[in-house]
Amino acid sequence: MNPVYALSEDQRDCLQEIVNVAMGQAGDSLARYLETFIQLSVPKIRLVESSELVPELQKMSEGAEFISAVRQGFFTAKGNAQIRGEAIVVFGDESFHELADLLAYDGELSTQDQTELLLEVANILSSACLIGLAEQMDVELGFSPPSVIGQNITIHRVVNADRLNWSRALFVEIKYTLEQRSFNCSLLLMMPGEAIDAVTATLDLLLAD
Amino acid sequence: MARKQVQKSLPEAWDVNVTLATNGIEGIEAIRNGKGEMVFLDLTMPDMDGYEVLAKVKEEGHKAIIIVISADIQPEARERVMGLGALDFIKKPVNPEKLHAVLSAYGLL
Known about the structure:
The complex is a heterodimer.
Chain A: H1 9-34, E1 38-40, E2 44-49, H2 53-61, E3 67-78, E4 84-92, H3 95-102, H4 111-137, E5 140-143, E6 147-153, E7 168-178, E8 184-192, H5 194-208
Helix pairs in contact in A: 1-4, 1-5
Chain B: H1 2-9, H2 24-32, E1 38-41, H3 50-60, E2 65-70, H4 75-83, E3 88-91, H5 96-105
Helix pairs in contact in B: 2-3
C-alpha cells in the first residue's frame, strides 16, 4: 500500500495551534527588527499535490507580478522523526522600498544592499518560526543558511516544478503584513512526502499527552 | 485545539455554562445573546478578529469581562487590546497555572 501522507482532524488542529504560536514568535521578532506593528492572520495549512504547485504558489503571492524569495532548508538534528523541508520567504514587489524606508536607509539600495536585506529579514522570520515549532514539538531542528532564490522573479520560479522529488507536500503558509503600507511577505514551510508522516507522528505524541 | 486547551484549563470547581465560538462573528453573537459574562478571546481568527470583537463590545456597551489569549506576543498587541477594554492578556500556549493566576489576581476564582 502506498503511504497516504494525510492529516487527521486532530492532527491538523494541533498543528494549527503550534503554528499559531510559532507565527506569533516570528512576528514579534520581525516587529522588533522593523520597530513597527506586524499584522498576523490565521496560518493556512494544506496538503498540496505536485501537479497543483504552480497555482498554489500563485494563490500565495496574490497575483503579484514579481516577487523576491529566500530559501532555507531545515531537518531534524536529533531524534527519530525525520522532519525536513524548506522554509521559503516570499516578498511582494513593493516590499523592498518599504523595508528600506522602515529601516531608514538613505538613497537607492544597491543590489548588494537589497540581497543583504532580504537574507536578513527572511532569516529572522524563518529561524524564529522554526525554533518556535521545534520547541513546541519537542524536536531539535537544524537549518541551513538562507540563500536567495531570486529577486524580482515570477512566482513560479520559486520552486522548480520540473525537478520535484515529491508528489504531495504539507504546506504551512504564514502571512505578515503591515498597516497602511504595501509591505507583505509570506513564510512558506514546505514539507514533502515522508516528512509529512514524521510531522504527524510527532503530533500524535503531543496529542497523547 | 486552543479552545479545548482553555476549556481544560478552567477551574474544575467553576459552575458555569461554556459557549464555544469558532470565530469573531460567532463570538460577538454569543455575547449579544448574554452568553459572554466572561470571555476568553483569541486575536487571530477568521472572518472577524479579536480586535474587532473588542471594538464591537465597547461600541455596543456589553458588560463582558474579556481576557485575551493570543499567540501574538508583540507588546503593541497587548497595549492595543488593553486600550480596547480587555481585562488582561495571556500569551499562548495557555495552561491551567497561567489561567488560574490571572483569574485569582482579579478575584474571579
